[in-house]
Specification:
The chain is α+β, with helices and mostly antiparallel strands. It has 6 helices and 12 strands.
Length: 176
């Protein structure tokens, strides 16, 4: 395929979830020997310098080739890379039917993992809740229940009266 991009998705086990080819952790492309990844933070393609490949690239068994058409579809549907959870104070509140306090999300990009919670003032801000739960960083962690983007948006509307909070349009505009 000299002269054309080859596309790959990253998948494989992590501390919190198994990423799959259908729900990948990253999107990669290669032109000849030059690797690039789609930043899930600013939605632009970033070049991986040869000396940084060992640090940035997933293991070979966690890279799966995809067609240019599939890569374009993944790039256009950025929600596939984002995971959402309803955040409860603790498991007891969840079991008792108490409402969640907010929604948290994770964007796991090759350069950084960005964990955020939705705040009352209508913005996403950094959180440690996902690390606390999935990596055992605390003994008093919240309880998280995974949601789809659509379910997360409905819950945010119910909790805060906002619509479209899971939309990534603001982040998409930063990448243009």
């Amino acid at each position: 395929m000299v002269g054309q991009h080859e596309y790959f998705v990253g998948s494989g086990p992590t501390a919190m979830a198994l990423y799959t080819e259908e729900r990948p952790s990253s999107l990669w492309r290669r032109f000849d020997e030059q690797w690039e990844y789609l930043s899930l933070l600013d939605w632009s393609w970033k070049t991986v310098e040869a000396e940084r490949e060992a640090w940035f690239l997933p293991r070979a068994e966690d890279l799966h080739p995809v067609s240019a058409h599939r890569a374009a579809a993944l790039e256009a549907d950025r929600q596939v890379f984002v995971r959402y959870w309803a955040r409860y104070v603790d498991e007891e509140d969840w079991r008792d039917g108490e409402p969640p306090s907010t929604v948290v999300r994770r964007r796991r990009s090759p350069e950084c993992v960005l964990d955020e919670s939705f705040r009352r003032r209508g913005v996403w801000g950094r959180t440690l809740a996902i690390l606390d739960v999935h990596e055992g960083r605390s003994s008093d962690w919240p309880h998280l229940v995974e949601l789809t983007a659509k379910e997360a948006d409905a819950l945010l509307h119910e909790l805060f009266g906002v619509t479209g909070a899971t939309g990534l349009w603001a982040e998409q505009e930063q990448g243009k």
